[in-house]
Design brief:
Shape: globular
Structural class: alpha/beta
Radius of gyration: 18 Å
Strand content: 15-25%
Low-confidence stretches: 1-8
Mean pLDDT: 91
Helix content: 25-40%
Bound molecules: zinc ion
Length: 245
């Protein structure tokens, strides 16, 4: 990754915020790989340490998260210590995220979709959105300059919702899988949680099938889905990115 660039360049063009280590790998790892391949700076903020998980300690997951970040070509990854399983949207947590937003100054923020099976994921959608808004307010004082991301998109791979758009991750599907499998404590076959977790050999088939499904929606092989709240604005109809009929 290029060390120096324009003086006003941000530390992260794209920042993915998630509740748990390995969430990003499951929902938008291929997209982060694609953005890094385009020369963009990418970053991940995990809000918890993963201490409530059935398998593995928070320390193990920290090491695995660092390895996954390396595989994803992510230049910056840190975790806050919000309580795993009890992430709350409160002012203190919003301000902690504001500090990171003002440090990294991302143009785009990826959040989890707002309807989710795991309550932490749903909370992060709102918590992250509100933090992005607060971060732009000069009167929210954190001893750092205000910064509001230009765009928020929601990673919707696990949501039963029609995506706004798909990112083609076909060239990165193996690296995406390798990043997920960096979490050996979670995904390697082991006695603990054996009845609860998908066997290691099935993870590849499942994750490839999920991304194949979304790829098909956009006419590519493998894809990751996103929802945006805003309606798109178009200048030139010949440049609207649609698949051919
Ligand atoms: Zn999660």
């Amino acid at each position: 990754m290029a060390a120096a660039s324009a003086p006003d360049s941000s530390l992260a063009d794209v920042l993915a915020i998630a509740a748990h280590r390995d969430d990003v790998e499951q929902t938008c790892g291929g997209t982060l790989l694609r953005m890094a391949a385009r020369g963009l700076h990418t970053a991940i903020l995990d809000l918890t340490g993963g201490e409530a998980g059935t398998r593995g300690s928070a320390e193990e997951r920290a090491k695995e998260a660092a390895e996954a970040a390396r595989v994803l070509g992510v230049g910056w990854r840190q975790a806050l210590d919000l309580p795993d399983g009890a992430v709350e949207n409160n002012l203190e947590n919003r301000i902690r995220i504001v500090r990171v937003l003002r440090q990294l100054r991302p143009r785009v923020v990826i959040l989890p979709y707002w309807q989710a099976r795991h309550p932490d994921h749903a909370v992060v959608a709102t918590l992250g959105y509100e933090a992005c808004f607060l971060s732009g307010l000069a009167k929210v004082d954190t001893n750092s300059a205000p910064h509001r991301p230009f765009k928020i998109v929601y990673a919707s791979l696990y949501a039963d919702v029609r995506p706004s758009f798909i990112v083609d991750i076909t060239p990165f599907i193996e690296q995406r899988h390798a990043a997920l499998m960096a979490y050996r404590s979670q995904y390697a076959n082991q006695p603990t949680g054996g009845g609860l977790f998908v066997p290691e050999e099935e993870i590849r088939e499942r994750t490839f099938a999920e991304t194949r499904h979304y790829g098909l929606l956009a006419g590519v092989r493998y894809g990751e889905p996103f929802v945006q709240k805003e309606v798109g604005l178009v200048d030139d109809l010949t440049l609207v990115p649609v698949q051919s009929l």
